[in-house]
């Protein structure tokens, strides 16, 4: 039933809570796990502490590129470690780190790689927090065309 399971991962404890569920399904069905980390494109406002108002534009661009690469490297290291751990458990695992909008990139990866299931955590936000912060999981549920496993994570 499941040949390929996509597990978007952002390094959070929430994302870690999904892995046992995804690995159990992968073991049961002999499925391959695809770990995906999306690095949001950095904006100058996020680097305000590192940049002064008088900073040269070239320095600002360089600082953005360095910050983006540092996030990519951390993501690559994290996912490579997770994939190695999964492979030691006898599972087939692949990983990828991409830049972009998380919702768009998850949906694109799932489509391009013919994922049979997307496994994600629900951070348990509701009301105003959900309206302001949004929810990647919610957007994937609404816009996606693949079955999903959503693991609720509350009170953490």
Nutshell version of this structure?
This protein has one domain: HUPs (Rossmann fold). The chain is 47% helix and 21% strand. It contains 6 helices and 5 strands.
Describe the protein's architecture and organization:
- The structure is a single chain.
- This protein is an alpha/beta fold and 156 residues long.
- The protein has one domain (4-37, 73-152): HUPs (Rossmann fold, 3-Layer(aba) Sandwich), CATH 3.40.50.620.
- 47% of the residues lie in helices and 21% in strands.
- It is built from 6 helices and 5 strands; from the N terminus they run βααβαβαβααβ.
- It has helices at 13-16, 19-29, 57-88, 102-112, 127-133, 136-143; strands at residues 4-8, 32-39, 92-99, 117-122, 148-152.
- A 5-stranded parallel β-sheet has the order 3-2-1-4-5, with helices on both faces.
Which SSEs are present, and which pair or pack?
Blueprint (H helix, E strand, L loop, with lengths): L3 E5 L4 H4 L2 H11 L2 E8 L17 H32 L3 E8 L2 H11 L4 E6 L4 H7 L2 H8 L4 E5 L4
Parallel strand pairs: 1-2, 1-4, 2-3, 4-5
Helix pairs in contact: 4-6
Top CATH class: Alpha Beta
Q: Which word captures the global form?
A: globular
**Annotated CATH architecture:** 3-Layer(aba) Sandwich
Widest sheet: strand ordering? 3-2-1-4-5
Helix/strand class: alpha/beta
How many domains? The number is 1
| Average pLDDT | 86
- How would you sum up the major sheet? 5 strands, parallel
Fraction of helical residues? 40-55%
Count of alpha and pi helical runs: 6
| CATH fold group | Rossmann fold
C-alpha Rg, in Å? 17 Å
Unreliable stretches, pLDDT < 50, 5 or more residues? none
Order of helices and strands: EHHEHEHEHHE
